[in-house]
Amino acid sequence: MPDGIERLPNDRPRKRVGTDLLAADVHARLRAKILTFEIKPGTRLVEDEISSSLDVGRTPVREALLRLQGEGLVSREKGWVVECTDAASIDHVFESRVAIEGYATHVAALRATPADIRDLRALAEEMDGFEAMGRAQLNLLNRRFHERIVGLSGNPFFVEMHERTQFHYWNMRLPVLFTREQAVVANEQHKRIVDALEARDPDTAERHAREHVETTHRIVRDALDG
């Protein structure tokens, strides 16, 4: 094929691979900054500024932003802006978490190694000391625990979808503080999940994972309704 352009069935040319690679790199870098809140919700994203800072043309930047828009991480209204998640979406976020984390935990029970189980149990045991740590540290440990389990599924689509639900959950900045009793129950649920993973019991692991997310949903919903 001349010029290295692959033809589609209708004989329309595709973009060059080089442009696709640049767009993928820009997307990955922007996505990471958005998901970690290095670029905060509500921030305006100016194509020229991104092009200059990353030393790429505007075409891959535009393609990357369109992909981020498709993922629900940015929107376009008089310019590009990082999404701010409305608290009214809380039920949708938790419904997504139940579905994704539930089955990802099911699969993780079939694929996790003994070393993986030890790492997860260590995280759960570290969270037992929640009274001596700040809320930010506990949140970080909790996120690592859930991210690790989803990652152990070995399914990159689960990982990507989970990252998006986590972004929208933390993006809401919910004014919810767990009581001591609720924190204890949450970590006991963590340990039951680890026990089921160690036993290689996917159905039980999935059930415990779903129950854990549903419990958190009830706590958050009750706090918001109160």
UniProtKB/TrEMBL annotation:
Domain of life according to the entry: Bacteria
PROSITE patterns registered for this protein in UniProt: HTH_GNTR
Keyword Iron: no
Keywords assigned: DNA-binding, Transcription, Transcription regulation
Gene3D superfamilies, sorted: GntR ligand-binding domain-like (1.20.120.530), Winged helix-like DNA-binding domain superfamily/Winged helix DNA-binding domain (1.10.10.10)
Pfam family, one: GntR
Record domain HTH gntR-type: where: 20-90
Full protein name: GntR family transcriptional regulator
